[in-house]
Amino acid sequence: MDYLMGIDLGSTSLKAVVYDLDGNVIARGSRPTERFHPNPDHPEWTVWEPEQIWRGTAAAIADAVAGLNDPRQVRAVAVTGMGMDGLPIDGGGRWLYPMISWHDPRTAPQFQWWKENIGAQKVFSIGGNPLWPINSALRILWMAEHEPEIMARADKWLLIEDFLNFMLCGCRVTDYSMASCTLLFDQRKLDWSEEMLAASGIDRRLMCDARPSGTMLGEIHEEAARATGLPAGTPVILGGHDHICGSLPVGAFRPGVVLDVTGTWETVLTATSEPVLKPELQPMGMTVQAHVARGMHTVWGGCVAAEMLEWYRKQYGFEAARKAGTEGGSEWDHLMAAAAASPPGARRVMFLPHMSAAACPVVDDRGLGAFVGLSNLATRGDMLRAMIEGLDYQFLDIVTAMEAGLGSKMEKFIAVGGAVRNEFWMQNKADVVGRPVEVPNVEEATPLGAAILAGIGMGLYKDEQDAFERVYRPGKTYHPDAKLSSQYAEWFQLYRQLYPALAPVNHQLFDQPAA
Length: 515
Prior knowledge:
Nucleotidyltransferase, domain 5; globular
């Protein structure tokens, strides 16, 4: 029996999943992704420690391998994960600095410099990137300014997936979809932009050569074999950006299909046959990126999502935790029961989901979240329902902006990610957007997408369509309640007034010291 392994480096967990060629999960392993705050003078600085990423992932792989009768059945592995976080390594392969996390605000000055000296529209016209403080190039500029001795020793800048591939097989390469995250990649040429490199002063030698997803990289070497349990010589195939990999097993590599990936972040993406670098997409925070499917591109918008619900659980979930301990079930079971018990509209409470700034279709790095409409009638359940409705209004806002920018209406919505286990959330999403939302019976779409790339690279699938036809499983479709959708359409117009009404106050608050 032939198996494939997809390795997924996420913000909350490091996963390794083994599949057969029909997409069935055979074995899996997981370890938490740990955030570190190494500088007491800057407690807001947040990093991923390379040692923890490597050791945690290796342990997850080892757990998955332990579930197999014969590890040699794994024909190939591929890595996927989050997009912009990376680190410098020297010529001997030693990492020189932790990966600055997307949670870390330290690159705000570099962001401002780039905006004033290069400009958001120029960046988008070449690379399709919105200008965010978390873009990879801004971390490189921060390092050059604050750690020049380290950067003088650096041989390559490895994005997090590239780092793991390097640890597995020693190859210093990136793929088109990951290179697309850096501000430095030319979407038309599918190569590094000499113009962006020259404008930023970043040395081309730091950038790994970019190749198509599905390219053979190398083989698991002896040291990685000892750490992971994978046999030395197991092929390593180039994967790609997480949410784009997740499009492969659900058919969202074809134009006209819209994929909604909801986890820590929510991304809404659709495939295009060429890079759509229309200037009207740029102010809305849309990203144009090379697809992991060969010859394709994608347009997507994304915002932080479930991390805000996790914040709520930690701060206000004590009653749900008590019930879980005495009545059974999980904290989330009880939290969502309370949200579902709240009436539509959450007793007039609305939520602006900008707790980690605003990224799409409103772009504001000084944005802050807000609850409005609070009264002495509001309950914890109302507040949680308002958060879910606010996230779904944000989803509809992205969809509306994307339709306007591309000049086409979206009809087929497919949802994947951790949020699809929450039936209340999925039904609310369908009610808010007013169109059916399909949740396919595809387990772990993101690592499965990486595994598909491994299979394509090995010739076990002819192409993306062949793989999709083998692994796809229809699931549940959530149909909108027409009456509720009509009501949500009215409330959506109120939601769209929240940001412009609150922005002046939020900007003043943002500029105040946080502590």
